[in-house]
Specification:
Blueprint lengths: L5 H39 L23 H4 L1 E7 L2 E6 L4 H6 L10 H24 L5
Helix pairs in contact: 1-4
Length: 136
């Protein structure tokens, strides 16, 4: 005995699958972009370039001087459901993790912690859009 409306319901679920994949790809990119933006903001917030520049203290985000670091941030798509937050200034990793000569001045890890709060809300909104049939 077939239940009434199963074909229509199955078609709706199949449509939701495609929309969910599109929403997930968009969400991954948006979160990576938020990460880059937050990290760059932490580098420039309160920083003074040029003559009045004061280097940051160990454990604090770097203070921008030349703006090479904060302007090197971007998102690189790395697959259908993967995007990398990248700062490709030559000394970015050395500042983030420290070196033998320079104590760490993390900016990526604190930024990730800060945006983590947004993940649940953005994911819930994406699922709601799909279930309710809203547009991307």
């Amino acid at each position: 005995m077939a239940m009434k409306g199963t074909g229509r319901h199955l078609k709706r679920l199949q449509g939701m699958q495609g929309r969910m994949a599109a929403e997930a790809r968009k969400l991954v990119y948006v979160l990576a972009d938020m990460h880059v933006t937050e990290a760059a903001h932490s580098i420039t917030e309160g920083a003074v370039s040029g003559k009045g520049h004061v280097p940051s203290r160990p454990g604090e985000p770097p203070n921008a001087d030349t703006h090479v670091l904060d302007r090197s941030g971007h998102v690189r798509e790395a697959g259908p459901l993967r995007a990398d937050s990248v700062f490709d200034a030559p000394y970015a990793a050395g500042l983030e993790f420290g070196t033998e000569k320079v104590a760490e001045r993390p900016f990526m890890r604190p930024a990730a912690k800060k945006i983590r709060k947004s993940v649940d809300a953005l994911a819930t909104a994406a699922v709601t859009r799909v279930v309710e049939g809203g547009s991307l």
